[in-house]
Structure prediction request, 132 residues.
Amino acid sequence: MKRYWSRLLALVLVVAFGLMGCSGSLDSLTGDYRQDTLAVVNVMKEALDLTPDSPDRAAIQAEARQKINDFSARYQRDNSVSNLSSFTTMRTALNSLAGHYSSYPNRPVPQKLRNRLEQELQRVETALRRGA
Prediction:
């Protein structure tokens, strides 16, 4: 009888953990690469357009950081998008902005970095329109 209960408990635990692993992801992305990339581009543009005295600066920067982390976690090892030019350019832009936020969290984005990021984000949007 004891053996029966231990096997039943093991089966219940396997099913419970299996169902927990199948639950939807908690990130803010949909899973559609094109839509997710455009959403992250829009948040990054919004974060770049902030002035140092914006009242919602901290919230927008936090949202940008969260989107950057979610995008990186979802698509970093996805072989179907890793060779796309939009993905490689997007990763460069994400790394640049995330690096600035990590190193200088209370400082605005310098104009030189802002210009480069705007150019890269424009390239990403163009590549997505082409399907690359």
